[in-house]
Write a structure and sequence with these properties.
- It catalyses: 5,6-dimethylbenzimidazole + nicotinate beta-D-ribonucleotide = alpha-ribazole 5'-phosphate + nicotinate + H(+).
- Pathway: Nucleoside biosynthesis; alpha-ribazole biosynthesis; alpha-ribazole from 5,6-dimethylbenzimidazole: step 1/2.
- InterPro entries: Nict_dMeBzImd_PRibTrfase, Nict_dMeBzImd_PRibTrfase_N, Nict_dMeBzImd_PRibTrfase_sf.
- This is Nicotinate-nucleotide--dimethylbenzimidazole phosphoribosyltransferase.
- The chain is built from 14 helices and 5 strands.
- The chain is α/β, with parallel strands linked by helices.
- It has a single domain, classed as Rossmann fold, CATH 3.40.50.10210.
- The protein has a 5-stranded parallel sheet, sandwiched between helices.
- The N terminus is likely disordered.
Length: 326
């Protein structure tokens, strides 16, 4: 992972990229609604999926959505807060997750193969945990900017749509702290769920340690986020500049979108929520991002599985639309 070279502060270039994000082309009209309306009598054969497909086509400047080269990208890092109150070797545990994703029995790889989608795990220094945010800032500004820049490399795969998943050890804890810093509320609300007692304690300790320090979203990312969440932010930024639609897989990837939404609400217009996960606060977060999930299957893993399932439904719907003729 290389560091960014900036003349000013490391975040200056990031802010400029966010400020200068491209918007939808004026006057562009896709063929999605026209194809869907061919049956007449107000019938819509793919229901609310029409809106999702139309959004894809708009961002791609294409009459019909292109879903031929999807990428399922999973970002993995090691959060120092994961070691709080635990004797586990967090580096080994984090790297074991990566091995499981790349070599083990995981559903997302099988779904990706069936879809003809590329599947790639991006490691964000799993051997170098971020700092425990209950003791200090998770990253320096330079480290955070470098992770954002590394995440931007996801667009180099040449995908026409990207599913963003997360498998970082401690990432859900970091995401909960970020959301409290952005929106307020209690740790039980943002970090709750079965078996979440230690996570709630860690989030409370972190919020108390940094209370009142900043309201700047990039600083909140730096303090609580870790390299993988910073990388997700970079991926969303780069995809917007390349006009590549993004499907957010779960709570952590949606939290990365929340950082950008807090800076510039329109910055996440190219993003869709692929599904509603089993994470208790995910629904509340989607509401704040004004996103409706495509699926609600109670998938409780953030490794891209829910995103891949949503993509499979959208590909089938797109194929159905193209079969309709004038």
């Amino acid at each position: 992972m290389t560091e960014t070279n900036t003349a000013g502060q490391p975040f200056d270039d990031i802010r400029a990229l966010i400020k200068n994000m491209p918007n939808l082309s004026d006057g562009f009209v896709s063929d999605v609604s026209r194809h869907s309306a061919i049956l007449g009598r107000g019938l819509r054969p793919i229901g609310q999926l029409e809106e999702s497909l139309e959004a894809i086509a708009h961002w791609q400047d294409s009459p019909m959505p292109r879903l031929a080269r999807p990428l399922i990208a999973v970002f993995a890092g090691t959060h120092g807060v994961a070691g709080r109150g635990s004797d586990q070797d967090i580096v080994q545990a984090s790297q074991s997750r990566v091995v499981s994703l790349t070599e083990g029995a995981v559903a997302v790889r099988g779904i990706a193969a069936e879809l003809g989608a590329a599947f790639k795990v991006y490691e964000f220094g799993t051997e170098h945990p971020s700092e425990d945010f209950t003791q200090g800032a998770s990253l320096t500004e330079r480290e955070c900017a470098a992770a954002i820049a590394f995440g931007m490399e996801v667009v180099a795969e040449g995908a026409d749509v990207i599913v963003l998943g997360a498998a970082g050890l401690g990432a859900a804890t970091a995401a909960a702290a970020i959301n409290i810093a952005l929106y307020g509320g209690a740790a039980e609300y943002w970090a709750g769920g079965n078996g979440a007692a230690e996570r709630i304690k860690a989030v409370e300790a972190g919020i108390n340690a940094h209370r009142g320090e900043t309201s700047d979203p990039l600083e909140i990312l730096r303090i609580f986020g870790g390299r993988d969440i910073a990388g997700l932010v970079g991926a969303i930024i780069a995809a917007r500049h390349q006009r590549i639609p993004i499907f957010l897989d779960g709570y952590v990837s949606c939290t990365a979108a929340a950082i950008l939404h807090a800076i510039l609400p329109g910055a996440t217009q190219h993003c869709q929520a692929s599904h509603l996960s089993a994470e208790p606060a995910h629904d509340a977060l989607l509401s704040r991002l004004d996103l409706d999930p495509i699926l609600n299957l109670k998938v409780n893993i953030g490794d891209g599985t829910g995103g891949a399932l949503a993509l499979s439904v959208l590909k089938a719907a797109a194929a159905g639309l193209t079969s309709l003729k004038d």
